Give the backbone structure.
Amino acid sequence: MGHNEPLVDLEEYFKDAHGITQVSLKEETARADDELRAQVLEVWQEAHERRRAGNEHVEVDPALVHRLADHDAECTVGVIVKRGSGSANALGYRYWFLTLDRTGVRFHHELELRLGKGRTPLSPLMSPDFMAQYLRLGPARSSLKPDAWAALPTLTDLSRSDFRPEDLIAKADEIRSGLQAMPDRVADRLVRDQMNKYRLRRSHD
C-alpha cells in the first residue's frame, strides 16, 4: 500500500490478484422490510455496546458504536436480501457475510426473539473456519484442481469450529436418500433448506 490512497491500493490488489471486487449493499438494504432492518441494527448495536462495556480500559464512544453497528447491519440485511434473489447450491446459500465477530453464533436466536418464529431469516453470518470447509464442499471446489482443494485446511481453529466436512456430507447424503423420487431441482432445494437448518441447529448445540 502507498501513503496517499492505501484503501484504493488494497481494493486494486484484491481485484487483480484474487478477482475480489468491492460492491455496495445499500440498494439491497433499502429494499428490505423496515422492521427487519431495525431489529438487525438493534442486535448489532447491543453486541457492540456489550463488548465495549466489558472492558473497563476502553471508553465507549456512542458514535463509533453506532457506526460499527450500522455497517454490520447493512452487510447482514444486504446479504439476506441478495439470498432472496440468487440461486443456492445443495449444500447451502450462495451469499454469506464473512465475519470474525462471535455475535454470529447467537445472531439467529437474538433476531428471532425480536421478530418471532417463522418470520426470522436464517443467519447469513459465516466464520472463516466454516468458509474453509465450505470451499471444500461448495461450488468453488469444482473450479479447483484436486491437488489444490485437497490442500485446503479442514479446520483453521478447532476451538471455534462446530462443523466437520464428514458431518455435512453424511447429513446431505442422508437427506437426499429420502428424495430419490423427486425431480433433481426439487430435491436440491429441499436438501439445501434442510442443510441450512442443520448447520444452524448445530451452531447452538
The chain has a mean pLDDT of 77. The first helix runs from residue 6 to 18. The first strand starts at residue 97 and ends at 98. The chain has nine helices and two strands.
